[in-house]
Amino acid sequence: MVLIHFWLVEMIYLLICNRMWKGYQWWHKRIRSQKIPNETYRIFCWWEKTEEYYFNSIRVDHNKPWLQIKTISKGVAWINLMKYVLKAIKKIQKDKLDSFFMVFDRDPWNNTPQQLEEIKKLAKDKGVELIMSNKSFEVWLLLHFDKFNKKVLRNEEYEKLLTALLWKFYQKNDPKLYEYIKDNTTNAIENAKWLEKQHIDNGEDLYVAEPYTSMHKLVEKIIDR
Question: Model's pTM, two decimal places?
């Protein structure tokens, strides 16, 4: 009788310990999932507010407090934006695990091929990831709706297409833009990968290919992290 009593007490004790351990594992996993990572994604955009509003909306919608966005209004030359990014890197402590992204449009009217090569070299040397759209950021927006692969003469043509797809007048610098397209983000990522593959299969330089955008690479990193 004593042995049975001892056995029951031992079984109850082991059961309690097991449940406490599982509870601790659940709590520890929950705490780790909510911990803010040390690394900060620092995104530098040029000129327009469209990209800034878009990334800020992602930051809020996906609860990514480590995402920082800065728009630089110092002319439309790529090199000016890159110089600003390099200054920002110098101000960051070297022991911080920060990632830097330069988001820009490939505007050949105000920039030269030589400037593009210069910023590509600087980006590689300083660890800055270039996120480029050709001709403009609107290529990324159009990919939310379809496998878009059509050259246009002017950016205004993108805006007309977006107006038709959104069923409302498309306007640059719209703070609510993300709300109109966020449900199609996965679709946009897949379409952008498809478009990139089309250019690669054709042997094209992605910095020259049109239309093209590497926005999907940054957006996917943000959402998946």
Answer: 0.80
